[in-house]
Design brief:
The complex is a heterodimer. Chain A is mainly α. Chain A is built from 13 helices and no strands. In chain B, 60% of the residues lie in helices and 2% in strands. Chain B is built from nine helices and two strands. Chain B has a two-stranded antiparallel sheet. The chains are: A mainly alpha, B mainly alpha. Chains A and B meet through α4 and α5 of A and α8 of B.
Chain lengths: 312, 227
């Protein structure tokens, strides 16, 4: 992406040295705590999966650009981020060839066919995840049977079995010592990454905060004022991962504050509805994808009026 | 003869019914799960299309404009009933796998679309070749989609298992996979046409000639187009 041609609403603000490469590097750094956590929780195989996925995404993008005689875009590191995020969305037992199929769908079909970075209309990693979920359902939901260094709850994920909340349960959940996909279990590591991204001004806290907050509120309201379930719903499933790293994708999130508010509230509402009432335990990926599709309309509807401009 | 060839090729590439005119997508997405089903559906549609094109073209001076759509439906339904009976009698397995989509050819957009856009304005010979071209175009798209979807989605080809079930990508055999393949095949055709210098410009029903158009009386764009 040509860094001189960023489209945004005023006030235009350009941070010195903010290249695509630097931004993506920051995201990779922010993902490292979660990577370490997944390594501790699920064993070394998670490291292997992340490495294979990232390398495969880079390779696919490089091959595509070569075949299509397009300028090489591998050095912007966005493929590495997609690969890492995708690997974070599979359980540690996932067969590697199935992860590679997911990479192919994310990079070639969702990203490169639509013109590469900045032109994709939905988040590539999420489509890869959903495609794998629909194709390899049993492998994608085979949580927590990996050779783990710590005791892993081999029961259903907390989202599927919400019990009484006490402090030790909560800590288990917060530290991610339970079954799930690689990157989503350890809320602490994800939060560290999120704070780093905010400090580095890579993302604004608007979308993650509203998204997570709205899930808390909506779950409380729609589960019959069940505070325990509301708190659990925030720390379980892919909510943290989705809210911090996926819903905030520049290309597929709205530009203005008002737009981001609508977008994040929509994500929160849909996530809660799918979790509580639909035939699926997890709703984060579908909710973000659906709101991704609405982003152009949200952007259109929330254009800022120029100062002194006349009502249109 | 050159004109006839042009009409035939138009149906396959430049005006491909599924990919360029975007007609008949419902059956294309639903049927393209298996190669055999696609070929069967393609053959059935081609037969109906050729038959209805010829009859409608022959009757184009007889059918009054105001009731032409019901007339088309009756002609099309006749041919569909024929096909349905033949398929049910001789290839019951195909009849079962096509299910509701066989009788639904009656209201298939391609058949009605070609009747309205082409057959009722052209000679019988031209309409015949248009029907064949459109039929081949439809069958080719369905088969291309089905080969990928059946091979990688179900691991089989022509119903024979080639790839073991645990190594299949099931999404391809499901509805989303149909949309994936539909988009991909469409992109490949448009890309190919662009490479050969053919501008991608879908020609829809109206060519701006209101004088020769049967629907001019009821057309909301009559004033705009008739400059």
């Amino acid at each position: 992406m040509n860094s001189d041609m960023i489209v945004s609403v005023s006030p235009h603000y350009h941070k010195a040295g903010a290249t695509t490469q630097r931004v993506m590097l920051d995201v990779i750094i922010a993902l490292i705590p979660a990577l370490i956590a997944s390594c501790l929780i699920f064993g070394v195989r998670s490291l292997l999966l992340v490495a294979v996925s990232a390398a495969n995404c880079v390779l696919l993008e490089w091959v595509w650009n070569k075949l299509m005689k397009k300028p090489d875009t591998v050095s912007d590191l966005s493929a590495v981020v997609t690969g890492m995020l995708l690997a974070f969305n599979v359980p540690a037992t996932m067969p590697i060839w199935q992860l590679i199929v997911g990479d192919f769908i994310a990079i070639i079909i969702v990203k490169m066919l639509f013109g590469g970075l900045g032109c994709n209309f939905v988040n590539p990693a999420l489509v890869g995840r959903v495609a794998m979920m629909l194709s390899f359902t049993s492998n994608m939901t085979n949580y927590g049977t990996a050779a783990a260094k710590v005791d892993v709850l081999s029961s259903a994920t907390p989202l599927a079995a919400m019990g009484n909340l006490n402090f030790s349960h909560f800590m288990t959940l917060f530290l991610g010592r339970h079954g799930g996909v690689l990157g989503e279990t350890c809320a602490l590591a994800l939060l560290i990454g999120g704070v780093y991204l905010c400090v580095r001004q890579v993302i604004k806290p608007t979308i993650p905060c509203i998204y997570i907050g709205s899930v808390l509120v909506f779950t409380f309201l729609f589960s019959g004022f069940n505070g325990t379930q509301a708190v659990l719903s925030v720390f379980s499933g892919g909510l943290m991962l989705g809210a911090i790293f996926m819903a905030t994708d520049y290309v597929t999130s709205p530009l203005t504050f008002k737009g981001q508010l609508i977008y994040a509230l929509g994500c929160g509402f849909l996530t809660t509805m799918i979790r509580l009432f639909a035939n699926s335990a997890e709703g984060v990926s579908f909710a973000i994808l659906l709101m991704n599709l609405l982003v152009p309309y949200i952007n259109n509807g929330t254009k800022t009026k120029p100062l002194g401009g006349v009502n249109a | 003869m050159k004109r006839k060839m042009q009409i035939l090729l138009n149906g396959i590439f430049k005006e491909n019914p599924v990919l360029i005119l975007v007609l008949g997508c419902c059956s294309a997405l639903a049927i393209s799960v298996t190669v055999l089903g696609s070929l069967g559906m393609g053959a059935a549609l081609t037969f109906v299309l050729v038959g209805s094109n010829i009859v409608i073209s022959a009757l184009r001076k007889v059918i009054p404009d105001k009731v032409r759509i019901p007339c088309y439906i009756i002609v099309v339904a006749t041919f569909v009933t024929l096909v349905q009976m033949v398929v049910e009698a001789y290839v019951p397995t195909l009849h079962k796998s096509l299910g509701i989509f066989l009788p639904l050819i009656v209201v298939n957009c391609i058949v009605l679309g070609r009747a309205e856009m082409f057959a009722n304005k052209n000679t019988i010979g031209d309409a015949l070749f248009d029907g064949i071209g459109m039929g081949i175009g439809y069958t080719m798209v369905l088969t291309a989609m089905a080969i990928v979807r059946e091979l990688f989605g179900a691991g089989s080809l022509f119903g024979k298992q080639i790839i073991p079930e645990e190594y299949t990508v099931r999404i391809l055999a499901q509805t989303p996979g149909g949309f994936f393949m539909f988009g991909l095949v469409m992109a490949i055709l448009v890309w190919g046409l662009a490479k050969h210098g053919k501008k991608f410009e879908p020609k829809m029903g109206c060519d701006g000639d209101c004088g020769g158009c049967g629907s001019a009386d009821n057309c909301s764009e009559k004033e705009a187009k008739n400059v």
